Amino acid sequence: MTTKTLTTTALTGILAFGLAGAAMAEIRIGATLSETGPASFLGDPEAKTLRMLVDEVNAAGGINGEQIELIMYDDAGDPNRARTFATRLIEDDEVVAIIGGTTTGTTMSIMPMVDDAEIPFISLAGAIQIIDPVQPFTFKTPHTDRMACARIFEDMQAREIMRIGMISGTDGFGASMREQCLSIVGEYGIEVVADERYGPQDADMTPQLTNIRGEEGIQAVLNPGFGQGPSIVTRNYAQLGIDMPLYQSHGVASQGFIDLAGADAAEGVRLPGTALLVADLLAEDDPQYDVVQAYTQAYEAAYDMPVTTFGGYAHDAFRILVDAIERAGSSDPQDIRDAIEATDGLVGTTGIYTMSPDDHLGLDITAFRMLEIRDGGWTLVD
Prior knowledge:
alpha/beta, Rossmann fold, six-stranded mixed beta sheet, 13 helices, 15 strands, signal, amino-acid transport, Leu_Ile_Val-bd
């Protein structure tokens, strides 16, 4: 599926003059997202967000007086399709920047393309490998999986949890987060005494959870993963009557996870998330309050559905890109890249971004809020 989002001005020009060229936007921004397929719960709100924000910016006069054309493709979560679409965006559509890579797999397939073409790329995926080591033209907006591990282990440490079991997905996100968690868990004095895995298509994790429950002295379970797997783990966990804390990753930080797992089964689950999920609980003097409220109200008015963390990643990527083009005073890809790298104190829904030549994320662990599911919704952990 291919979607090209033209500005209102562009559409009016086409109708009035019958010439697409007379109405062509002056700044072309590309996107390849997993709007359908197994990662659509991530990609769909990302695509909706980009369409909404492009319309907002164009209605306000564009960027430095120039209108935006959003050229967006649906890669359905397939890395090969994402690579093909990235090539098309660069060579045929001649975009000045790309937002996308809904998943780690699609992101990693796009990165060599943008490096070769020297086109700035802002990923919406979580793995630390996307920005470590730093690649000149690749940036990202979600926290890294390593940061998520650290935030979870901080919370465990505060609860005096020292022995845990892990059950991880074998997909790109799950495998990466498992590796990162195992690499730093010892720094928190926590021991992993059971380490189970499951595949993306597995429909029952009862055997793995039974193995974990059988290990002596386990005090909590951590599930690095995203997609349907963590919801199944959560349901099986409740069905087995396992009476110890269950932690999930930021990869499932949405109402959709609660709905799929079931509110009763998800009760008490903790995970690191963003301010966006608890917009109604933020203090008015919270530095993210205004941005979170504005995005939440606009998205819910436009689509009559709640915001998600994942749409927030797209929001932040777009705002970073617009800010960079405005500061650069140019739509040249190299100038945009340099300006993105100089982003300083930009407030987003995910955190406050300050990038540098050595940091193409610009967030630290304090951007995470520790959340707990209570009565079918999100609460802030003190």
